[in-house]
Write a structure and sequence with these properties.
By secondary structure, the protein is mainly alpha-helical. 79% of the residues lie in helices and 3% in strands. Strand 1 and strand 2 form a beta hairpin.
Length: 382
Amino acid sequence: KVMSSPTRLVHLGLGLFCALNGIVDFYADFRSGKLRWSRGLAVYRIVHNLLVLVLTTCFLLEFLEKFFKEISGSIQMMMNFFTYFLMVYLTVISCIDCSIRFQGRLYRILCKLQRQEELSRRRGFTLSRGKERFLDCLLLLLIAMLTLRVGIHVALNVLHSRMGFSHPCYCFMSECMIFAMNTLAFVMLTEICRSWWRMESGLKTLLLDPQPRPVAHQLCQIRRLNAMSQSLIDLTAEVCGIFKFVFLCYLIRNLWSGIVVGYLIVRIFLGHGGPDAEFMYLVLAFVTCIQPLMFSLLMNSVTHTTGSLLEVAKQIVRTPCRQDALVDRRMEWLSLQLARQHTYITVFGTFRMNRSLAFRSSSVILLHVLYMVQSDYSTMFK
């Protein structure tokens, strides 16, 4: 089955986007099996990463030189910009570290996912239209987030000119690099989900087939499914290990973005969003924060789906088949193999990136917004 042209173009565009932002040293078409190393991209990645660090440093120094006196009188503005620049630096460094140290592992993971795709198709494992449509919609929304990212920088440049900023927006390359790294992790997780759902279809076919195949064929299929599921579990754990610093910076930035956006919304609804300099700086922060928050909804959907994959498979394996005693014992053994494993997306093995974490993060954001409103109470209501 040939992939539809729009979906193929989306994958080609995302692979090119990751390469142009200094993330990978190879041309990547995530679904067609075409992964090719390039010395030119390796040199480009080194130059690009150094340029991102230099431009980010220039942006920080120039901003502090021209506007430090203006923001030094406001605690909110000082905290806002100090936190922003610190997060951008840490996130950029984590992206550069990941692209330098794990190029080979990133390449191997993509190759393994492509082999899993080929094996699934060869063995007749199918993917339901609903799940295929779900993954395609996520990718299209990712493209919309990328478009929004570019639009945000256009809006920032317009706001800069209206506020009298004389410097260019040096943060464009760093923000695109951060988004490209998150995109690579996002695409890998969607491909893991795709391969896992194909494996599940093979498992359901084996257990619920009204005309069971010979016992030898069933045992062979169980061994193949076991190897496939174990490979996907290992790939999920490897993705968590590679992107652990990237995911940590991603979570921290989401917290900061939510606090800034929440505080600004409170000020606007209370009618204290005048044209003062502090409010305008907060508007700039709001424009910067809105895209990471919207992207976090997509990422949370994928990480939650990935974390629940094994639980669904365990329920399928526990389904009594009552076909043959040997097949039943092999299925029980497979169930025991899966019992103590998981496909959770974790940060340093501590925080599970799922809906529960999203709820806890929202609670933390709400609490800090209340703290900021309380500390600013006398100013907002006098």
